[in-house]
Amino acid sequence: MAVKEENTYEEKKSLSFVEQIVEQDLAEGKNGGRIQTRFPPEPNGYLHIGHAKAICMDFGVAEKYHGVCNLRFDDTNPSKEKNEYVENILNDIRWLGFQWGNIYYASEYFQKLWDFAVWMIERGDAYIDEQTSEQIAAQKGTPTTPGTPSPYRDRPVEENLRLFKLMNDPATPEGAMVLRAKLDMSNPNMHFRDPIIYRIIHTAHHRTGTTWNAYPMYDFAHGQSDYFEGVTHSICTLEFVPHRPLYDKLIDFLKEMNGETENIHDFRPRQIEFNRLNLTYTVMSKRKLHTLVDEHLVAGWDDPRMPTLCGMRRRGYSPESIRGFIDSIGYTKFDALNDMALLEASVREDLNKRACRVSAVINPVKLVITNYPEGQTEEMSCVNNPENEADGTHTITFSRNLWIEKEDFMEDAPKKFFRMTPGQEVRLKSAYIVKCTGCTKDAEGNIIEIQAEYDPDSKSGMDGANRKVKGTLHWLSADHCTKAEVRIYDRLFSVENPSADDRDFRELLNKDSIQVRRECYIENYAADKKPGEYLQFQRIGYFMADPDSTAEMPVYNKTVGLKDTWAKQNK
Ligand code: ATP
Ligand code: MG
Description:
Glutamyl-tRNA Synthetase, domain 3; CATH 2.40.240.10; 7-stranded mixed sheet; 25 strands; about 20% strand; binds magnesium ion
């Protein structure tokens, strides 16, 4: 009996606090046992990994409790929104592996929201304020001192209705007036001090064109949209905690307008907040990401150094690795900074399972096997993925003239150097054991060629081939490989938490966040790989072909190294 109780407790503990709330609501029979969530992006930029955290929650809860998650574009500010963003948001959500129920746009509710605002005005619960935003802000008071009522607060209803119509007239200048809810200028919650609910914007809207000139503010659109759609759990991030009482208050108004009586079985959307995802060495604010793109500080939204989903996709992160990372950090009620190294560990763990192992030499030096006949070649068999036999094998050509990595040779090597040095044997991966016999240098003393002899009886897979050699090196046949460009990335920012730094964030960029190597070689088999195919350059790291590749020059992005070298550097 005791054991059983413990198990039940364990099960409960593994639920996120959001899931606990949802289960409680289900147990109480709220909303008729229905679960409906939404993911509400504003189409004013590209999705980043922070959004992925919200997506995993919104879609995850709906999936788990057999509900539905819809997409709602929160498109109430035409000055910043574009269809380009809508398209990319859809693409990124699909890539992450989620399927929405319906696609809604807050702009579809502009008429309903207008009617709701008119109802508020008619009841004396909203008024037109002709003060400037500065004047209104100056009257707000502080959390401990009440605000000052606007001189327009007690306008007659008829005048408010006339002016509200005027707000939607293209001739009325932006900023001339706003509509405010008449709530409570001394409420300790600042959001109750007659919040602005409508403003004038003259930019054409990407969906409704020039039909509207008056647009609802976030607080007068978000909860209302939740209500119109039948959202049961409106899950968002912690900065909306202070908005929740206003969210509930405006839902009360809506229910009253619709003549709904309060009853536990009535439909009522419930806002729940969790902590945002913040990552070290990057920024997540859309405004800052826009600046990086607009000022060409990165190559675009999908620059592989960006925290955007399209950037991570291009860099070679798998959707599974992103979901795995989000799962591992969990959901809490406290904001924190998550370590980028944890995300990279998740990427490594996932790519280990799916990446095709290939050979590439990114800092090449010639190696000549002097006792291997000129012109002779052999096809060596390579396992595509030791983690998954079903991935099969491919072959790589061996010959007399090879490329190896410069770092894999040392003329005067210390004892523990198990790579290539005169007199020492090493294995060339999937091929033979070779013994280094010397090297050739140019006038400046740079090593331009290394020589070695191979043992014909040591071919991989042959009987007795496995005598003890400590090092195994990757290599390429110089006449049977493809020249390639390799882009190696480092942290985008040089400080751990750029958002908490007083300096301009542009000054905090890591000046060495990209290194481009154009003298690299890759085996022909890998040169055919396309963006989207996960590769491991053996002994180096995970890589992915970049869309910048041409027939003459394939380009690869380094996704992540095989080990966390960053952690070592910082010790
Ligand atoms: P903006 O600065 O434009 O408001 P935003 O990052 O809030 O940017 P939205 O498009 O409004 O962008 O966000 C859509 C949803 O994603 C919201 O529910 C928001 O709470 C959530 N979200 C945004 N950033 C994060 C983050 N870093 N971690 C978790 N959720 C996030
Ligand atoms: Mg937002």
